[in-house]
Amino acid sequence: MRLHNWTGVGAPFALQSRAMSMEDDDGLHRLGWNLPPEDLIHIPEHWFSYTEPPASMHLLLGMIYIVFFIMAITGNGLVLWIFSSAKVLRTASNMFVVNLAFCDFIMFVSIPIFIYNCFYRGFALGHLACQIYAALGSLSGIGAGMSNACIAYDRYTTITKPFDGKLTRTKAFLMILGVWIYTIPWAVMPLIEVWGRFVPEGYLTACSFDYLTTTFDNRMFVAVIFTCSYVIPMSMIIFFYSRIVSTIFSHEKALRDQAKKMNVDSLRSNQNQGNQSAEVRIAKAAITICFLFVASWTPYAVLALVGAFGDQVILTPGVTMIPACTCKFVACLDPYVYAISHPKYRQELQKRLPWLAINEPPDDTKSLATATSNNEEQKI
Description:
Blueprint lengths: L10 H11 L15 H4 L14 H31 L6 H18 L1 H9 L6 H35 L8 H23 L6 E4 L4 E4 L6 H46 L16 H32 L7 H24 L2 H10 L15 H6 L7
Helix pairs in contact: 3-4, 3-5, 3-10, 4-6, 4-7, 4-10, 6-7, 6-8, 8-9, 9-10
């Protein structure tokens, strides 16, 4: 069922006339005032009540996204290259890191659309580019969320079940396949408008799913996609990392209690007293990972719920551009959080790109990242 509010031959022309006639007291045009009828029908009426932003705001956003684009393409591109080509890194656990980097990479493939729209101050590339931008954003965003959940599961099983919790490459591949089977429908259904649709938002330079149409079908779509793309992966991430922290805390407490009974300082051999305790390192990693996911998708989740079920007046164009920026910014950080902290990855970078001046000496001491993501390669 298509969710267009405007039907009939005369509706687009009436909408265009309304948008063009709207000016504020300073003579500034409203958003969409100069768009042709074939584009106006795809834009929620909500945005036509706002004055188009100053050119400087478009320029600023365009420059910010250029920086994001360079950071993300470079960081995620290096992860895809190194992790896929280095034999030492081709492990079951690292397959999830590669999938996450792929999701973040395809998110930024569509960024030139946004940048072009920014420099031309509006809906410059039209409906088709909007659909491409939103579909890639949906694929990459939901795929990244579920990939984060898979990483959390892998680290949970590796740490809490060190002898029988390691994944094989076959199981990791099936999990990744499941991620994409789970993700693709949420991009396809709005794209062909079977359920939901993709529309411009904010300054009309970005596109996302329609969270402003107040029909029952569209509200149901927002509620379901909120649950599937935000609540489910968020719950999985919080559950697995909380269990990791709980397990490590319990283990460390048991070691301390046993050492106290034996009247020794520690049961660990060759323990470096200058290093942080294991539970502190685990807690920091868990908090960082959860915080990144929360920071990137909570604003969009709140935005969608307010648009569908709350007071739409608070959703100004400027406000709705904030979640878009947070999602893109976190996609820039992902390769550094999940990969740059990996010693073997830095060693490969040092070997292949010596001009980066990375100083990562060979060391058999395994950090948290190595222990949880560099499992012994399993035979298929």
